[in-house]
From TrEMBL:
Belongs to the glycosyl hydrolase 13 family. CDD domains: AmyAc_SI_OligoGlu_DGase (cd11333). This is Glucohydrolase. InterPro entries: GH (IPR017853), GH13_cat_dom (IPR006047), Glyco_hydro_b (IPR013780), O16G_dom_2 (IPR045857). It comes from Acetobacter musti. The lineage of its organism: Bacteria, Pseudomonadati, Pseudomonadota, Alphaproteobacteria, Acetobacterales. Residues 42-441 form the Glycosyl hydrolase family 13 catalytic domain.
Amino acid sequence: MKTSRRSFLTLSGAAILLPDQTHAKTPASEPAPWWETAVAYEIYPRSFQDGNGDGIGDFIGMANRVDYLADLGIDAVWVAACFDSPNADNGYDVRDYRKIMPDFGTMDDFDRFLSRATQRGIRVILDMVFNHTSDEHPWFVRSRASRDNPWRDFYHWHDGKNGGPPTNWNAVFGGPAWTLDPATGQYYLHTFAVKQPDVNWENPDLRKELYDILRFWAAKGVSGFRFDAITSIAKPAILSDLPARLANGYHNFADHGERMHFLLRDMNREVFAGTSLYSVGEAYGVDRRQITAMTAASRHELTSAFRFDLVLGNKHKTMPAAARLRAFNASNAFDDTPNVWPLVWLEDHDFPRAVSRYGSRRPEYRQRSAKLLLTMLLSLRGTPYIYQGQEIGMENYPFRSIDDYNDISARNGWHEQVESGKITARAYLADLAQNSRDNARTPMQWDTSPHAGFTTASATPWLAVNPNYKTINAASEKQDKKSVLSYCARMIRIRKTHPRVIHGRYKDVSPESETLYAYERTDRTGTDLIVLNFSDRPAQFFLPRTPASLVISNISDTALPRDTTLHLRPWESLILTL
Ligand code: GLC
Ligand code: CA
């Protein structure tokens, strides 16, 4: 089955290399790549804007909101999974990579969205789910039909062991990572759900198909791709059981060694070389060293990557927000490995809302803490990604029962953990309410009309709208100069007019505090100081000198300090030029 693998081993003998230290700077004559100054925005199409009144977001709706994004200052949009899919995992189980999901419209609708976005200077990045397909994809349908068909090797088929699956690996969405297909008596591997079989990247014909799909979309004029679960594409050469504590979760059984890098370089050479296409990897389960190796320009693998290690992992859940984010930034945004351009983010469609996670629990500080988080996000080195709704300070949804959830991960977990008696419904629901991916997937809150203007009054939205939409919505916030939305637009403008908040040298000037996070960004022309009070209480901070000007504050009546003592109110954030 794995014969194709052997022949590649000789080609890829090199051990993991650290990025080339000799090309630390782009020559002054070359303009910086667009992603260094761009602000990106993720759209989860199902929840962004319904354009035809069926309760599901779509490309007609997205095209109608291009002006909103352009006014906000957005330069690039990452469109989450949008291809034809039976929706076992909301589009992350693709049936046809060259067809728009009918729920989201037609290819014409997509083309209209792309041209509207392009006209307004917004680049489009598509989400390529290439670790797995749907079990309804024609490749898999053919692959499972017999043991000896040409598509068999497009997937990972293996014999069982001792009457059970080949290994003890478990899938991310629960249950074993192997499913027996009775027709041929073999098991197939699925890192995620049963309906998401992993493809076999070792097969050159499979890779060719994937690369052709990228060329197809590139020819339409998209600017780049986000690669879903990309750190799972290489599998270990020898299948073996993992210690029970490690058998849960995909990052444990993927091969993050030379095979992963080899495959990324192969894709880069075949599709990206000689083009200006951008690529960003969802780099789950790998450490900083691997990420720098995947993303250093001199390695020719990916442009950038979303990092999840450190503060976003469970290990760090108990750390206070300021301490977690400081540690994450030090390692991610301010990693100064030559040739690595980071990506910075606080929310995407797989995580709860940032303001509910890192902000104040007190309603009176919601707006302030949402602005404080945006101040930080937009004053880091790296391409910032804003997730839809983050710019208006959307919060987690007040979930009550399991029926309120749509996510396969929530529903499978209920079945596996609660119905089997492993944990109580109460404990499970309490955890889910805080951490569920559906927190980020409730419809975008546009205005005060029924269903927050996401869909027409008579339609039923696919997932309930957060009842707080009368207060938190784009239309009201647009009118209000003190809103989170207005603040976000200002912060984006500041980022674009103060190159030092993007490229300046970083110095953490509050390294000990658990609630106050302050850092300087310095270049030849001066220093900006960013001060963030992650607390329901006031704080003091001593400045190195009397500041020259106040760039922005999240409280409208904050004045330029006249001496070197800064008195901060709860959740106050400001940027000062020293
Ligand atoms: C990524 C996606 C997530 C999806 C999973 C499987 O983590 O962001 O939404 O469920 O991959 O494709
Ligand atoms: Ca629709």
